[in-house]
Amino acid sequence: MNDQSLLNLFKNWKFLEExxxxxxxxxxxxxxxxxxxxxxTLRSLSFTSYFESDNCSKLFALVKHFPSLxxxxxxxCVGGMGENNVExxxxxxxxxxxxxxxxxxxxxxxxxxxxxxxxxxxxFPNLQLLDLRDCNKISEKGICQVxxxxxxxxxxxxxxCSRVKLHRSNEL
Length: 172
Prior knowledge:
The protein is an alpha/beta fold and 172 residues long. It has one domain (44-171): Leucine-rich repeat, LRR (right-handed beta-alpha superhelix). It has 7 helices and 6 strands; from the N terminus they run αβαβαβαβααβαβ. It has helices spanning 3-12, 29-38, 55-65, 83-93, 114-117, 120-123, 140-149, and strands at residues 18-22, 44-48, 71-75, 103-105, 129-131, 155-157. The protein has a 6-stranded parallel beta sheet, with no helix packed on it. Helix 4 (83-93) links the parallel strand 3 (71-75) and strand 4. It is globular and about 45 Å long. This is Putative leucine-rich repeat domain, L domain-containing protein. InterPro entries: F-box_LRR-repeat, LRR_dom_sf.
């Protein structure tokens, strides 16, 4: 699948509410944005093994420009957000609060760090599910920050997060 096929798919499926993009290395950020403009009623968007860089900025841009999204899944996305890019991303994105956004799945993302989690409570005040399985660069500090700000979280998956000490979870 490439950008043009994705665009055609989104144009022709009038009642499309969920899109799952698996291992489509020929789809670019521009292709995804064009397709989403055709189907602004989309509620759920999933990426698996997505390789274009700057994934954290892409995530926040999706939330900003497509407020109908209530679920985003970004599994095993390569590239993304290092500590040096956090400030640039934060200042350039003009974060927008999305109160209807409920579910964020970010498992197996090597790019995800505490610094990337800090804005979640500001952007997703009603977040109910956060999946961070196998995100080995996050720590208790980042998790605590999110849980303080996102008081509606009912499902938190920290499986195999090696830097999060579960024996101290009562401090969360």
